[in-house]
Automatic annotation (TrEMBL):
Signal as UniProt keyword: yes
Protein name stated in the entry: Putative outer membrane usher protein
Keywords: Signal
Signal sequence segment: 1-24
Taxonomic classification: Bacteria, Pseudomonadati, Pseudomonadota, Gammaproteobacteria, Enterobacterales
């Protein structure tokens, strides 16, 4: 709450530029031609949190009636702590977040941003991030601007059904779920019997490949039975999901992106867009 009350004062006090050779007035500090009162500079020495914005530049050359100029869109991507030391401003604790409008930074750029800690601005109020990319400080609005080169630009997030064959991770992963039950019953005549069951389901994934194993078992005092309900392999390719395997009964209405219908045991291969069924 303390920083929120200070920020409007910070913007008002730092909004006026000074001549390059101007000296600080009594009770103030000059940093990059901006004058900060001593009390405000003391707060900067402790550090205050400000937002980080990605400067998204769009060319208007293709727009009808446009003069070919560029427009700038500012997309908030996180927060950073702004601090002052030895009459210079610096950054630490860069926190990058996912953008709600579909813009995402690459893994390499995220690592570079998080590695920026206790770095100070140069005389032009810039902090280089990579070749052609840098941080600049918007002192009038007290926000940090990230200017990216074309090589370091973020990736536009597309819906999963469009970019289904581009997983975020190629590592091996999986899930396992089960349902276990046991019963014991005794009658008033001294008779008794016991039974139990187990349903187990496992998904194993590696990149675009997925394997489903689903089975069940039942046992009582006189008999036992096991059943393989599903053994299905799926692969995502060019926005499509293909599957092949065995399903013992289409009673299950949905198998990942494959929708089923009622019927008996079946061995088949299917393919189609997510949520659709195409029989071969």
């Amino acid at each position: 709450m303390k920083n929120k009350l200070v920020l409007p004062v910070l913007m008002a006090c730092a909004s006026g530029t000074l001549p390059a050779l101007a000296s600080a007035a009594p009770g103030s500090v000059v940093i990059a031609n901006y004058r900060f009162p001593d009390a405000l500079y003391g707060l900067l020495e402790q550090g205050i949190k400000i937002p980080v914005y990605l400067v998204n530049t769009r060319s208007e050359a293709a727009t009808q009636g446009s003069d070919g100029s560029n427009t700038h869109e500012y997309v908030r991507i996180g927060d950073v702590t702004l601090f002052a030391k030895d009459l210079k401003l610096g950054l630490r604790d860069v926190q990058v977040q996912e953008s709600d409008n579909g813009i995402r930074l690459s893994k390499e750029m995220r690592k570079l941003l998080k590695s920026i800690n206790n770095k100070q601005f140069d005389d032009q109020m810039r902090i280089p991030v990579s070749a052609g990319s840098s941080f600049t400080l918007d002192q009038k609005k007290m926000r940090l601007l990230l200017n990216l080169s074309k090589n370091d630009y973020g990736v536009n997030i597309r819906p999963r059904e469009v970019d289904i064959d581009a997983p975020e991770s190629d590592d091996l992963s999986g899930t396992f779920s089960y349902n276990l039950g046991a019963y014991h019953t005794e009658s008033g005549y001294g008779d008794g019997w016991s039974s139990g069951y187990l349903n187990a389901k496992s998904w194993i994934s590696m990149g675009v490949d997925h394997l489903l194993i689903d089975g069940s078992g039942y046992v009582n005092e006189n008999s036992s039975d096991t059943q393989m309900n599903a053994a299905m392999w799926e692969r995502d390719y060019q926005g499509m999901r293909y599957a092949a395997g065995m399903l013992n009964g289409w009673a299950m209405q949905s198998l990942a992106s494959v929708s089923g219908i009622a019927g008996g045991g079946s061995v088949r291969r299917v393919g189609g867009q997510p949520g659709q069924l195409a029989q071969a």
